[in-house]
Amino acid sequence: MAIKDKLSGNEAIAVAMRQIDPDVVAAFPITPSTEVPQYFSQFVANGQVHTEFVAVESEHSAMSACIGAEAAGARTMTATSSQGLALMWEMLYIAASLRLPIVMSVINRALSGPINIHNDHSDSMGARDSGWIQLYCENNQEAYDNLIQAIRIAEHKDVQLPVMVCYDGFITSHAVENIELLEDEKVKAFIGEYKPEHYLLDKDNPISMGPLDMPAYYFEHKRAQAEAMKNAKRVILEVAQEFEKLTGRKYGYFEEYKMEDAEVAIVIMNSTAGTAKFVVNELRKQGVKAGLIKMRVFRPFPFEELGKALSHLKAVAIMDKADSFSTAGGPLFTEVRSAMFDYARDTKAVSYIYGLGGRDVRTDEIMTVYQDLLEIVRTGEVKSTFNYLGVRE
Amino acid sequence: MAYNLKALTEKEERITGGHRMCAGCGAPIVVRTVLRALKPEDHAVVGVATGCLEVSTCLYPYTAWKDSFIHSAFENAAATVSGAEAAYRALAKVGKVKGTTKFIAFGGDGGTYDIGFQALSGAMERGHDMVYVCYDNEAYMNTGIQRSSSTPKYADTTTSPAGSAIPGKVQFKKDLTMIMASHNIPYVAQSAPFRNLKDLYEKAEKAIYTPGPAFLNVLAPCPRGWRYNTPQLMEIVRLAIETCVWPLYEVVEGKFILNYKPKNKLPVVEYLKPQARFRHLFTKENEGLIEEIQKEVDRRWNRLLELCGEA
Known about the structure:
- The complex is a heterodimer of chains A (393) and B (311).
- With 393 residues, chain A is an alpha/beta fold.
- Chain A contains twelve helices and 16 strands.
- In chain A, helix 9 links the parallel strand 11 (264-269) and strand 12 (290-295).
- In chain A, 56% of the residues are buried.
- Chain B has 311 residues and is α/β, with parallel strands linked by helices.
- Chain B has one domain: Thiamin diphosphate (ThDP)-binding fold, Pyr/PP domains (Rossmann fold), CATH 3.40.50.
- The mean pLDDT of chain B is 97.
- The chains are: A alpha/beta (393), B alpha/beta (311).
- The interface between A and B is large, with 44 and 50 residues.
């Protein structure tokens, strides 16, 4: 029987980490992720886990210590936000290229400057090409579920890549919601024991990791890394199916909400999807064929699947909670539209950048996005491809 | 057992020949001597900061390391090895490790005094059972002899060049050994590949087998950067010690111990002369600079004598 509880997103993540009982957690506090290592270190202090908690002096050292620990053969986890993730940048790429299945919660927060502690996706979006798998979460339940699945995905022998589980700072991390937890032993059985193939502490088979890699080999190693990311696409679905059997909760690359007969839709990530679903329901009451796609897996990018899912629409708005300052839309827009070029060329696509630095996104604002889409459908004309939502111009 | 270099060289080498370090470089001697202090039955996890040592000893698909080896980046050898050590403790709790593994990090002065200083301080403060060894060649040699905070005053480097207006690096060398002693960790020592390597070997053994964090700062001359004749490596080290530019001492549980006191303390000029990085100090327009260096060497030496109860 599943355990019904009421937890904040950070509490849910800390509970999942207690149930996972990793060998090493190395972390440095940063708002709004601070509670994760804080709750977890209490589990350590109470002897509820066997984990070695390494209270490092910076996020750069957090990721470096995670790399050392995971390379040594330990199941390793961490958590961070914003500047913390930015300080880890260099090491993110190295963790991925060393093929170390570290699992990290990223509690999304705007990047400085100006300094801001509230939510947007500029932190994890900036890390999108670091070679990490990225899973995004609408709410506490998804954060909990994704973190448990992340262990299996990361450690799968055909993948061996690190995973970021991203959820919205404060909105998800600090808001208390109803949640269904698994029993400890079910989590333990689901994730299984970590048995790395090659690791530093295997004294009978010493290994050198992190060599200088010259032009004769570097490209092949990066190619192998790309292949692992391809494999991750398959493994993510396999793990999701197994997780569904255990919990009844279904996960894929993205969630399609009222998409079957939809004519207009938005593509969105994380907590704003919840707000937007309310708007879809309102529009449906008015007889508008509105739908929504909520991304779960951004890396690897579900190019074909997403492109096809948008092909029957007349118009779609892709909403980014991060700007790439390319003057040509946010990162999600760019990639979704690229997929649409192959699979949904007749669907009109527009970009909206919204909610930067924690700016509230209200239902009436999302309603205006759908109204804009309906106008595009009515006139057959896109007046403005690149848009900002909810900002004083 | 009394120290016997000949007998010790019969121990199996833990870093193979055929690596690509320069002839006359101090660093591989430091590494071989430190690793020689490991008990043959013990395994080691060695972490190395980006630098000459790393790029010359682990070039895919080859490795010169017989123990487990990890390089991740420049500024984080201490943090990386601290993670591996934490893994060892965690896995030991659940019976997943066999035998004894020791943890050793190596970094040059760039990776230790400068860019890796924070990670080093953090790892030492946290109390990991590991040794951090700095092979100090007093500049960023891997990128082509740029000044570091370890470069001695008035040395000519490519970012502190000796010119007609500025005679080389204008700052004195940072005293990292003293800074690490102030971390109040169980063992800190300053050493060099001196004479029959006894000083370095014995300090490495203490550092490796003292529980908790230990720091070794080891002078490792660089023929390219210091511009001495390569066969003169050991002589350069000897002069650094005999002039008291690089005193040999250790700090055991906070107690300062002087390991070598020159019978006749040589003037610093003897050390500067064979190194072309100091050549400009011997010109007429730079008169008086050597005297300034001598004063600072004397000041630091006298302070060390006081700390060691030798004054």
